[in-house]
Amino acid sequence: MEESRLAFAKDSPPLAIIAAAKIADVSLTIDPSLDSGSVPTLYLGSGDFIHGINTILRYIARGATFPSFYGEDDIQAAHVDQWLEYASVILSGSEFEAACSFLDGFLTSRTFLVGFSLSIADIVVWSNIADYAGMLDEVVEAYVGRRGIGKSPAPSLKENLQCSKVNTSGLEIDLPGAKVGEVCVRFAPEPSGYLHIGHAKAGLLNNYFAERYRGRLIVRFDDTNPSKENNEFVENILKDIDIMGIKYDTVTYTSDYFPKLMEMAESLIKQGKAYVDDTPRKQMQEERATGMESKCRNNTVEENLLLWREMINGTEIGMQCYVRGKLDMLDPNKSLRDPVYYRCNIIPHHRVGSKYKVYPTYDFACPFVDALEGVTHALRSSEYHDRNAQYYRILQDMGLRRVEICEFSRLNMVYTLLSKRKLLWFVQNKKVDDWTDPRFPTIQGIVRRGLKIEALKQFILEQGASKNLNLMEWDKLWTINKKIVDPVSARHTAVLKDQRALLTLTNGPEEPFVRILPRHKKYEGAGNKATTFTNRIWLEYADASVISTGQEVTLMDWGNAIIKEIKTENGVITELVGALHLEGSVKSTKLKLTWLPDIEDLVLLSLIEFDYLITKKKLEEDEEITLTSPILNPCTRRETLALGDPNMRNLKQGEIIQLERKGYYRCDVPFIRPAKPIVLFLIPDGRQQSAANK
């Protein structure tokens, strides 16, 4: 690329351009002679010139010797463009902290903003932060002298704010014996329900360590119980994994190994390391609890193999039998007291149909498949701690290599059920719509309620791989989420349909007129909206009820007005009359009011607020739920009808907005026709009371 001259104002050097040019090996002549406030200009050797930071950055990136500088394909290039637009948010002091939180969440499991290598998106974002040390300091000093020649975009913020990667101090531990490039971990959900926030912790931690050690991540379906599993759950678990941005190398199924698992079970029987037991299940549990040996424990190999054949064929005799490991019935660790390895089940399997009548238990199949698939480190929650010895003993009896177990604490949330069996009860008893219900802690449920995956990642990874058991509050998660959505969520206006009051402006416009206003005053990427101004506008009744005659108020996005008269009937406000006072100071008014024009184009809204499904903070493992349980929350969904500005006809499903002075909402059902309301779900922000307590 030919040598060019970069002209700019000395008090605001374009750090992004200078850094990008250095990285792309573009020769620049520096000319800091423009007047303060001037747009940077790149003068080319051909006589042409280019104005504007982003335009110059794109020019440099397109001419770079490595193509990824502007994305490796059209989609990545579009993502780079989005970041170039978003970068300006960082320059706004009031939005700096929120922008940093957004970046923290986005970079939870990424190294670069776009793709897998450096692009101008990274350059422009970090240069706008301006506190980023190292290369930028070197570039600026080399080209335009010490940093003091210019003014930092946010000069006083570094003392109070830090924009860093998500705090993963809890994760900065070494996997035992791990070597970069040789680590293999696995995420092994059972396809008996959708993934929930507890599974998210396991999945994201496995993903983190696979990336940290440049290793492999296997997604394995532990499909060993056909009574609970089906293809719907398989498909939606894969969808959940995709939603969380987990990058895996392959998908496998424990059912792929059924033949080898049966061979191993038979081999252990022949070696005298396992036996077949026809003791009734309840009696077996009692004997294990007291350390009493089964009457079948000393069966001959031939007797065991005969019963094993009965199990394989699913006969009446076989259906009463179990294969048990012959470990130690007197071990203080009860998981080692001859655990069950195989049991019968004649229900067809969702993948292999009725081919098998016997299925391995998780405790038997997991170590076997881990070893065969090359897993080096098995991450699992500390609730399985007492079964770690069992895991290693089974591997030893099988003659397989050791797989290191790495524990982390189970994630428990207040007022939340994470047992798939109990969640299924809510689905089957119509207490929720389905597994994606916004009241559910499933991945699809919380995303549907308005949680951004970036917030979930930040929340999970900040906890790290600690083994400490704790009961987490939802407020912290929703607070993180708010910091991510606030800087980029478009602003709209709504008033409650049945709780509104009319304000007539005597000097208002005789004919309605329209102004084009930004949907977000500090984020251009949100686009614009058309706002209609009329002499009759709707106010919230709650606002109208606190206004006094003669009071001056501010109508947001318009100006001040003075209330001249308040008309009532039987103590109910029927109308307010006022006059615009646009020359008035908005700083002097106490009330800043949202409003809507009295026009036919207003859209009908259904505002939905959700509450916890149960009223008990922590449900014990053995605590069951019935239709008469006192812990069932009788009111978990509340709907309020409202009117919204006409621009909301364009909302897309899944779009998150802020209704001014009401909160953040996710669009669940977009505009279809005037008589059918747009459905918006209120997103908790970490401060709202539960609906049941209001």
Secondary structure layout plus pairing:
Blueprint: E1 4-9, H1 15-23, E2 28-34, E3 41-43, E4 49-51, H2 53-62, H3 74-86, H4 96-106, H5 120-129, H6 135-144, E5 184-187, H7 197-212, E6 216-221, H8 231-243, E7 250-253, H9 258-270, E8 274-277, H10 281-290, H11 301-313, E9 322-325, E10 340-344, E11 358-360, H12 362-372, E12 377-381, H13 388-398, E13 404-408, E14 411-413, H14 420-428, H15 443-449, H16 453-463, E15 470-472, H17 474-485, E16 490-492, E17 494-496, E18 500-505, E19 513-518, E20 528-533, E21 536-540, H18 541-544, E22 552-555, E23 559-569, E24 572-580, E25 592-593, E26 596-597, E27 603-610, E28 637-644, E29 656-659, E30 663-669, E31 678-683
Parallel strand pairs: 1-2, 5-6, 6-7, 12-13, 14-15, 16-29, 18-24, 22-25, 27-31
Antiparallel strand pairs: 1-3, 3-4, 8-9, 9-10, 10-11, 17-28, 18-21, 19-20, 21-26, 22-23, 23-24, 27-28, 29-30, 30-31
Q: What is the C-level CATH assignment of one domain?
A: Mainly Alpha
Instruction: Please give the largest β-sheet.
Output: 7 strands, mixed
Walk across the major sheet and give the strand order.
16-29-30-31-27-28-17
**What structural class results from the helix and strand content?**
alpha/beta
- The stretches of 5 or more residues where confidence is low (pLDDT under 50) are 131-170
Total strands: the figure is 31
Radius of gyration: 32 Å
Beta-strand portion reads 15-25%
**How many helices in DSSP terms?**
18
CATH architecture of one domain: Up-down Bundle
Q: What spatial form do the alpha-carbon principal axes imply?
A: flat
Kindly, what is the distance between the CA atoms of the first and last residues, rounded to a whole number of angstroms? Answer: 66 Å
From the 3D structure, determine the CATH topology of one domain. Glutathione S-transferase Yfyf (Class Pi), Chain A, domain 2
The amount of helix comes to 25-40%
- What would the average pLDDT be, to the nearest integer? 87
Family: Belongs to the class-I aminoacyl-tRNA synthetase family. Glutamate--tRNA ligase type 2 subfamily.
InterPro entries: aa-tRNA-synth_I_CS, Gln/Glu-tRNA_Ligase, Glu-tRNA-synth_arc/euk, Glu/Gln-tRNA-synth, Glu/Gln-tRNA-synth_Ib_cat-dom, Glu/Gln-tRNA-synth_Ib_codon-bd, Glu_tRNA_lig_a-bdl, Glutathione-S-Trfase_C_sf
Subcellular location: Cytoplasm
Organism: Digitaria exilis
